Input
Amino acid sequence: MAHDLRIEVTRFSVDVDDAAGTVGASFDTTSLRVDTPMKDGKENPSALSDADKAKIAGQIRDDVLHSAKHPEARFQSRRVSKRADGGFDLEGDLTLHGTTRPLTARTELVAGKQQLDLALNQVDYGITPYKAMMGALKIQAVVKVRIVA
Output
């Protein structure tokens, strides 16, 4: 049964320097946990047991992100500009899995909070998309990331 996963990062920090107009964020890659499986855009909590969710989170940390070697993902902006609609345009660098690449992102004001949606290609950061059971189980190369703050 194919499903997507909603994964949470439980330890992170965000630093906003209003005077410099910059944003820095770091995410503890060892703090990932599987929140719930998703099916057709809806939560499907009965699809996985707590033990299954813990096992998958461990595989993501150990076999995909190699968190023991790369315990932190970091974004540092070079430019932040506020738009008239209340959102922000960000330009900076994302370091993930020991690889730093430029990143341009856009936030939207949603229900009073900033929401950032982006797609990251794992291969761009030196990550081999996870496969198991001779390819029957695999993670797509492009993963969707949503940050709400």
About this structure: The chain has a mean pLDDT of 90. The CA atoms of residues 119 and 144 lie 5 Å apart. The chain has one domain: 4-148.
